[in-house]
Design a protein that fits this description.
Two copies of one chain form a homodimer.
Chain A: E1 2-6, E2 30-31, E3 37-38, H1 40-51, E4 56-62, H2 63-73, E5 78-82, H3 88-102, E6 110-115, E7 118-120, H4 122-137, E8 142-147, E9 158-166, E10 169-176, H5 181-189, E11 193-202, H6 203-211, H7 219-224, H8 234-237, E12 245-250, E13 254-256, H9 260-266, E14 271-273, E15 275-278, E16 281-287, E17 293-296, E18 299-306, E19 309-314, H10 321-325, E20 335-338, E21 341-349, E22 352-359, E23 364-367, E24 374-381, E25 384-388, E26 391-395, E27 400-403, E28 409-413, E29 417-424
Chain lengths: 437, 437
């Protein structure tokens, strides 16, 4: 089974934990069976592993998220990185080209596209086998999962079924995109489902759709012509134009935990991090800073602190958050999870910036020279090997490394390595970020 | 006029802004006539300057607060530092010895002792002249200010007057220390006053009381024998044993803003620092961190963030704060205001600690060598002169300085100087702090 997981989105609704790099699907707010913290993307990944152990998963994403995906899902995960942010049709087309040209998947094979961020149960993914049957039997061009609605809401799109094809399979009459609540209630009465954004189709059908738009004969050709692909959603380009669409119903938990309020509903009275609390009621607290947080007698609020900022909000009003985050001046993410560890901005001054870099033990990283600024690295803790140009040496706590602009350098963490980086330069550019590879 | 201002106390009730060094009287939460931020001690100092422009003010304090007092009141302020924390009688006796032996003040002169932290009006300090008249006329041994109570409270001590000596001056019958509210209401009916902790007396009387306890003939002798002085409050040792006590009433604003709740009453809807807020109601916000804070639809709460921690508390429950702060493990202050600038802990690791040091332009500092740890200084911004042993050199942004343990060093800030300090060592001791002199 070939699954394409779509990972995108910027994270203003769960600010300050989410930012342009760390979208909501990467926040480690959930707890797995062993009591370890996990993110939604990690949960989705392991849920698929349970129901579809033989599935090959490809992540379609953008460059900003590639590092955090590797950090959370492992270095060997198959990633297709879009050269620029367009829409879901180009992103899915590029992932399909990758599967056909680079993974030698037959154009007759069923492909499944899933968003990576719904909060659902294992049972949801078992439904994929039913979609597979439909596509393989060629009784529909596109097969979807329809979620049995729990309440009328204007947050989701609706799938309106017509006749039953087989037991538990319906042909689709039409789609209604985000209706008002009154209309939603009417649709539910008529038997409509929430659109879970899950699509199954034959690989060849999407390649043909892409080829009718742009001419290509291998992955790299499509990659280079990516900006010529129509900037349109998969729903509008493919699904709404398909002649034969089938929907398979799913009844069970399925939520978009895209706001603090929905998160608190799933995990009431959460307190993560260095938190002391007393007499709190319906209070959701996450503290990612290394300083203590005390909450006393708070009620119906979310309190979240990260290197990017601090939020205190009434839970029911927290859905308004995005507009206020939009007004903040500094949008540079202060915290980044990387495949080699973590990077946190500690301070910014007139012509310098101070960061804490954490390299996990065993990680081996070489990097591109930066263009404008000089970096000073002081080893705050741990040991490793450092190569500057052709010189290689062992580094330990207290060592000072000076990297002038243009100098190539490599670092290998023998034990967990904490480095304080002071970046200085008259032309200090936020984009002059080291690219570790 | 000789005034002794008592500055002490640790600051758990206004955590995380206050800490063992920065007591509540040093928090710059008030606004002066020119719109600049000022602390209570700065406000008290300038209020005295208005009503008693010729007064000489001596600050009786402990070593931890000496630096912040100089930073806020100027290098030339007269400070007497107690060699160890005892109680108010020893502290006042030491300040009196300083005035007699080192400032050549006559033992017949009236001395005024004032706490530095009440939030009051200029009029309050005009009352000192009335106390002075009483002490100079020798109609009482001790003269006090009695504040006309605004409501019955168990927070303060009460002064119960007896007969009128002169218009506006009463002899004192007795004192009642922190009665319950019912008793307080009864005392107010009987004409009792709040005890403002202001004492006037003749210098010689306190020197004699101290000499009956410890033998000394100059300031240094008393300083060395400080631990032998009775550990007792000035109230118990002197005031309650005095034969002739007079009280002068004061009617007007006078508050102990020792909790977030009383602070919010004085300054409703305060928002200091990097704060965005919307639809907040009766919300007091102070953000001393360099990251944005967003408050949405909060009600009756205090939100405070500093390098020491984050507090979110219902205002009326915030008086319970101290007991929860007492349970926090790390009590090392993360932020310190010094006479040369500021010091903030950015991070702590296994065998190292990272600080941001800010030296204000023009400050010239030499320091003691530290015993156990090596310090690396990276100049993040600004320029200055640095002397290590006998070598003096100019330092600019990007320079790296390594100071091994035992090495004497001096620094002079030419412009505002921001330094990142990485302190490393196997025997990293929190008390191994540089002493700048």
């Amino acid at each position: 089974m070939q699954i394409i997981l779509l990972s995108g989105g910027s994270g203003k609704r769960l600010w300050p934990l989410s930012n342009d790099i760390r979208s909501k699907q990467f926040l480690k707010l959930l707890t797995d069976e062993n009591g370890n913290k996990e993110s939604i993307v990690q949960r989705t990944f392991s849920q698929i592993r349970i129901t579809q152990p033989d599935a090959h998963i490809t992540i379609a994403t953008n460059e900003a998220q590639a590092d955090i995906i590797k950090s959370q899902l492992g270095q060997s995960v198959d990633i297709v990185i879009e050269p620029e942010r367009r829409d879901t049709f180009p992103a899915i087309a590029l992932a399909c080209a990758h599967l056909f040209y680079e993974k030698n998947i037959s154009d007759n094979e069923a492909i499944f596209v899933l968003p990576c961020d719904p909060f659902t149960e294992v049972e949801f993914f078992r439904t994929l086998s039913k979609l597979e049957k439909i596509i393989n039997a060629n009784t529909a061009d596109i097969a979807l999962i329809g979620i049995k609605p729990l309440h009328p809401t204007s947050k989701y799109g609706y799938i309106v079924p017509s006749s039953e094809i087989e037991p538990g399979e319906y042909s689709v009459s039409h789609f209604v995109e985000k209706p008002d609540e009154e209309k939603a209630a009417q649709l539910i009465k008529e038997g409509a489902y929430w659109n879970g954004g899950v699509f199954a189709f034959k690989l060849g059908s999407i390649l043909n759709a892409a080829k009718s738009n742009v001419d290509f004969n291998n992955f790299n050709e499509l990659y280079k012509k990516y900006s010529e692909l129509q900037k349109i959603s998969f729903d509008y380009k493919i699904v709404e134009n398909a002649k034969r669409i089938a929907v398979v119903p799913y009844s069970g938990k399925w939520t978009d935990i895209g706001t603090w309020c929905t998160l608190a509903e799933e995990m009431p009275e959460t307190a993560l991090g260095l938190v002391t609390r007393k007499k709190t009621h319906n209070t959701f607290i996450v503290n990612e800073l290394n300083i203590p947080l005390i909450a006393l007698s708070t009620k119906d609020v979310v309190i979240a602190a990260s290197p990017d900022g601090i939020l205190v909000s009434d839970l029911s009003e927290s859905s308004q958050l995005k507009q206020f985050v939009d007004t903040l001046e500094n949008t540079q993410p202060m915290y980044e999870e990387r495949h080699w560890g973590e990077s946190t901005v500690l301070g910014k001054y007139a012509h310098s910036q101070v960061k804490h870099l954490y390299f996990a033990a065993g990680k081996f990283i070489s990097n591109q020279p930066h263009k404008y600024s000089t970096k000073i690295w002081v080893i705050a803790s741990g040991e490793g090997n450092f190569t500057l140009g052709c010189d290689r040496k062992k580094i330990v706590t207290g060592d000072i490394l000076k990297i002038e602009y243009g100098q190539k350098h490599k670092i290998e963490a023998i034990s967990d390595l904490h480095i304080i980086e002071i970046q200085t330069g008259n032309k200090l550019d936020e984009n002059d970020i080291q690219k570790f590879e």
